[in-house]
């Protein structure tokens, strides 16, 4: 049974509009971050074994079922094991990916509790870890697949630059992370720059 202090703290958490908005932002951003990570974690091996499209839907070949899906009954975990087998992630990363998914499920299935009870909260540490994991996966993919397939596109980059290479998804997510602490300065600066560009005459216009 909850104590009176817990009940009061839960009401304060829910009724305070600033607190409510912040918790909704944190929960929504965590769910979005998870989907971005999943798109890379699950999507890249699926795309790698793609053999075409059927009625607009991606079709994978038997190699995908044998080398990825056979590793675990859940595609998320099977995909994580595929990355691990390639040497892209460590045993610790596998555990981290499990924790990231468990927290995502907790948020998705218990959002009212997450935003309105004092004993539940969004794990901002795991949110930052989700962003870091996405960056790690995408950087490995860029260096070990994209750069190998199309070396001419990367020949002008030195190793330090390749080590810092990032996908648009990982860049976008890293930009959003500060929002959970109320820091929207980067977006305000970029938006002001964008607005300024819109007011300038387009090429060929008077």
Provide a descriptive summary of the structure in words.
The protein has one domain (4-199). Helix content is 68%, strand content 4%. It contains 11 helices and 2 strands. It has a two-stranded antiparallel sheet with strand order 1-2. Helix 8 packs antiparallel against helix 10 (168-176). The protein starts with a helix and ends in a 7-residue tail after the last helix. The mean pLDDT is 88.
Estimate percent helicity: 55-70%
Encode the helix/strand succession as letters. Answer: HHHEEHHHHHHHH
Radius of gyration: 21 Å
Instruction: Tell me the distance between the termini.
Output: 72 Å
> What does the largest sheet look like?
2 strands, antiparallel
Briefly characterize the structure:
This protein has 206 residues and is mainly alpha-helical.
């Amino acid at each position: 049974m909850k104590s009176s202090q817990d009940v009061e703290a839960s009401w304060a958490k829910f009724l305070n509009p600033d607190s409510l908005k912040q918790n909704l932002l944190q929960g929504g951003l965590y769910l979005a971050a998870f989907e971005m990570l999943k798109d890379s974690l699950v999507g890249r091996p699926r795309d790698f074994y793609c053999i075409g499209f059927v009625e607009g839907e991606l079709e994978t070949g038997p190699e995908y079922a044998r080398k990825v899906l056979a590793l675990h009954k859940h595609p998320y975990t099977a995909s994580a094991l595929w990355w691990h087998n390639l040497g892209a992630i460590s045993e610790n990363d596998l555990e981290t990916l499990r924790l990231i998914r468990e927290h995502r499920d907790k948020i998705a299935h218990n959002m009212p509790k997450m935003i309105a009870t004092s004993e539940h909260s969004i794990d901002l540490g795991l949110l930052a870890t989700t962003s870091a994991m996405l960056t790690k996966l995408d950087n490995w993919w860029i260096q070990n697949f994209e750069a190998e397939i199309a070396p001419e596109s990367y020949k002008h980059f030195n190793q330090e630059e390749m080590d810092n290479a990032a996908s648009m998804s990982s860049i976008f997510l890293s930009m959003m992370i500060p929002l959970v602490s109320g820091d929207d300065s980067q977006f305000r600066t970029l938006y002001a720059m964008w607005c300024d560009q819109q007011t300038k005459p387009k090429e060929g216009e008077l």
